[in-house]
Amino acid sequence: MHPAATRSSQATIEQFGKYVIPNYKRYPVCIVHGEGTAVWDAEGKRYLDLFPGWGCNILGHCPPKVVKAVQKQIEHLIHVPNTWYTEAQGDFAEAICTRSFGKAFFANSGAEANEGAIKLARLHCGPQKFRAITFTNGFHGRTFAAVTATAQPKYHEGLGPLVPGFRYAPYNDLEAVRQLVDDETCAILLEPVQGEGGVNIADESFLKGLRQLCDERGMLLIFDEVQTGIGRTGQWFGYQHSGVQPDIITLAKGLAAGVACGAFVCRDHIAPSLRPGMHASTFGGNPLAMAAGIATIQTIEEDGLLDNCRRMADRFRQHFTKLREELPIIKDLRIRGMMIGVDLAIPATPAVAKCMERGVLINATHDTVVRLLPPLNITAEQVDEGCSVIATVLREMANEAG
Ligand SMILES: *Cc1c(COP(=O)(O)O)cnc(C)c1O
Q: Active site includes 367?
């Protein structure tokens, strides 16, 4: 048993059976402790975590500077409503906006950030312009507008009627977007790299074309950077790879290294459209999340983690490129920073349990894609360890597939 555990994994699993709504598919393991790129279960087994917190733990588990910042903050203030000013919220807003643009609003999750951005776009463009165009295989969250924006039928089943005013276009298809835009369209919303949809990277010409279209038609260009933001791709924000300036970016996941925090950032001239009274979030911008967020940005900067992210991306690429030459079941390799997709010719889901048995945590998405979201501070040794296990598992799967 791990010293942080008070009972077996099995005992906790039985408790969940009685008291927790069973809407998540969970692996039969109770995690009790994490440190950097490793976690331990109640039985004391160690796992290399190449998918920490679904991308939220962008610095791995319990990064020391974030832990200290939260400890220090919690002695003074846990929560203060937005009827007051706090130093922490000002400092975090400054840290984000000086690395991107404009002004920030704080929420608690990715879905909430997107809801706010959609409201802001409608408010800014006036009552005649309310439609948003979003993209097939995108993912924007589970609240009603966010799930409507998520153009994947499997997430809509049984939920109707959805929120009116959304149209869907194929990703990277500028002409299709042009066809869908009308005088009632206020926004185009997309991920610069689709995460859940299988690590699909937007073409630069596509993003430039969307920018131009938005300028011509008076629409806002919104990038959902919930997954690509805050260093994940090797730049502070995903849009910075393209030279395309969006009007709004939405953030969450890694924003405060695993403490719940969401935000959106908009260009200065748009900010006044979010009039007082039109939008709010009770927990948004709370001092704990802000302190964690400031420490996250400091850690990335002081430890040179954007650079490490790019170097480790090259290392993953080398490993998987070699493996692809060996294994024809690997169809495609899509990597941007610490967003890694290995697209297979066979279902990817069995790889997750097989890697877990061998002590490595990964994810499978969009049926055939092995997905990794390693922390920005992963080491070369950990990359090698993880890739070696994944290679063993994919070889085994290739053999089984014949
Ligand atoms: C995870 C994710 C969301 C939803 O975030 P929640 O915090 O779960 O609401 C939205 N957009 C993208 C791109 C995501 O990856």
A: no
